[in-house]
Write a structure and sequence with these properties.
The chain is an all-alpha fold and 105 residues long. It has 5 helices and no strands. The chain has helices spanning 3-22, 26-41, 47-61, 69-82, 86-101. The protein is globular and about 40 Å long. The mean pLDDT is 85.
Length: 105
């Protein structure tokens, strides 16, 4: 699988993740997990593909594990090289939907 295909899977994941946050059902959750498995199973051909995989790991694990320092450092290096922060894209979706669902103050 090429990195172009991983980018396409990433875009599918972002939409599925947004759908899941908007209205979680067993179907939306299953679709998101399936895309995650496809991303994990697809070999990357370059830094963009690696950045996508690291971003998904970082986002889903909330990068709080002290043992993950090396993976976090690798992610930071890769986003510096590819010029795109895929994890930040996922965070924007989560924050936007969280704010939309919050009661008005």
């Amino acid at each position: 699988m090429s990195d172009v295909e991983l980018i396409a899977l990433w875009e599918q994941w972002k939409q599925s993740f947004a759908d899941e946050l908007d209205c979680e059902t067993a179907q939306t959750a299953a679709r998101t997990r399936t895309i995650e498995q496809r991303i994990a199973g697809a070999p990357a051909e370059g830094l963009v593909g690696i950045a996508i995989k690291l971003a998904l790991w970082r986002f889903t694990n909330s990068h709080k594990d002290a043992a993950a320092v090396q993976a976090e450092a690798a992610y930071c290096d890769v986003i510096g090289l590819v010029g795109r922060d895929f994890s930040a894209e996922a965070e924007v979706i989560a924050e936007r939907l969280s704010a939309a669902m919050s009661p008005s103050q």
